[in-house]
Known about the structure:
The chain is mostly helical.
Amino acid sequence: MLGLPLSPLDTVALAIFAVAWLAYEPLVKAALGRRHMINLDMAVIRSGWMRAMARRESRLMDSQLLGHTINSASFFASSNLILIAGAAGVLFGGESAFRSASSLIVIETSTRLLFEVQVALVLVTLARGLLDFIWAIRQLNYTIAVIGAAPDEAAGVAQVYGAAAGRLLNPALSAFNAGVRGYYFALAAASWVFGSTTFIIATLAAVAVLVWRQRASSAARAIAEIREVLETTPAVTASRPPARPLEESPQA
């Protein structure tokens, strides 16, 4: 493979990682359906948030919540950049970095070229996550402007405006989630230096943990219940008969 000293098992492990890393989200959606997953349920909840935001007179709380999210994304992006710098330092460390790694019994790397490819895979995985965080921060800043420009409900466009704001917020936090997910796959990529078998196990374990948290964790079950409440409450409210006006008390 491109002159690299890859064994057949290395090639299989790299292929499994590439499919799991690059096609995780569409494959999981196709396998598990489009309900009762945290990411999909949270998209509905965030859309409800933006519709409620557009109907509120004071949007200070919405701005504060979004500012907290931007701070979280900035923290992860900064941490990611530090990890990238560390991986780059090993990658460009030359022969000394390879000798230091090869001296460890637990590390299995046959040549310096293979070792550099292994470290480069970690670096690329982290770099993709950093780009996701940067894109998330940009979109969250756009959303802040949208909240600030939200018209009063009297303008008659609150429902449409809130739905459009939700379509902006959801991709922003989807990019944030993709950046966080990159840490799982970066750890799996780093396991390659311990052997191709460990690489396969770590990749499958990362996918299993992600799927479990998306579908079977207590947080996933709670979020699914909240989605059900948000989706059924309007129908219940619409079908509820209007309350009778209170009878006036007789004059003395």
